[in-house]
Write a structure and sequence with these properties.
It is a single chain. With 170 residues, the chain is α+β, with helices and mostly antiparallel strands. The chain has one domain. It contains four helices and four strands; from the N terminus they run H-E-E-H-H-E-E-H. It has helices at residues 18-41, 75-97, 102-125, 146-168; strands at 48-51, 54-61, 128-136, 139-140. It has a four-stranded antiparallel sheet. A hairpin with a 2-residue loop joins strand 1 and strand 2 (54-61). Helix 1 runs parallel beside helix 3 (102-125) and helix 2 packs antiparallel against helix 3. The longest helix is centred in the N-terminal third of the chain and has 24 residues, at 18-41. The chain is globular, with a radius of gyration of 18 Å.
């Protein structure tokens, strides 16, 4: 994702990382606190209906999104952990470079907080703790967590930011 090199009123290069790291830290804390609460409250695989379309359901994911590579034999734990750490380092660099681009940096902060939240799980437990279970009739969306939600919102914000940037350059 290439960012414009020209300085504009909305582009300040080399600004403070603090607000963006603060947002990532809030995401990490909320993610970890909810996972701890769910683990202490619910038993594995036992759904607790909150609405006709939504359960809380404690499950473990050894893979990535949608349990991709969950049965790969163990190497994926370290590969996804390394990927999360590398992503966080790259995101810190981008946050420093483009700290004045608020939507871009908010998106990256959400993605980094979510990635680190899941890295913590992989290091501490060997799997990611998921518990949000949306369903329609008998079809269930793969369970996910707040870290995954933050990553998804961050990606959507990145897309919106890029579309706004491209439309503004016409």
């Amino acid at each position: 994702m290439a960012r414009s090199m020209a300085k504009t009123s909305s582009t300040v290069r080399g600004g403070s990382l603090a607000p963006w790291l603060g947002i990532a830290l809030i995401v990490i804390l909320l993610d970890q606190l909810t996972k701890i609460a769910v683990q202490k409250t619910f038993s594995y695989g036992n759904p607790h209906a909150l609405a006709p379309f939504f359960n809380l359901l404690l499950v473990y994911n050894k893979g990535a999104a949608f349990s991709f590579l969950a049965m790969a034999g163990g190497w994926q734990r370290w590969a996804f952990t390394a990927l999360g750490v590398v992503a966080a380092v790259v995101i810190c660099y981008l946050l420093k470079q483009y700290s004045g681009q608020r939507m871009f940096c908010l998106a990256l902060s959400l993605i980094m907080g979510g990635a680190i939240g899941n890295v913590i799980d992989r290091l501490a437990y060997g799997h990611v703790i998921d518990f949000l279970d949306f369903h329609v009739n008998a079809w269930h969306w793969p369970a996910f967590n707040l870290a995954d939600s933050a990553i998804t919102v961050g990606v959507v914000l990145l897309i919106i930011d890029e579309l706004r940037r491209v439309r503004g350059s016409r």
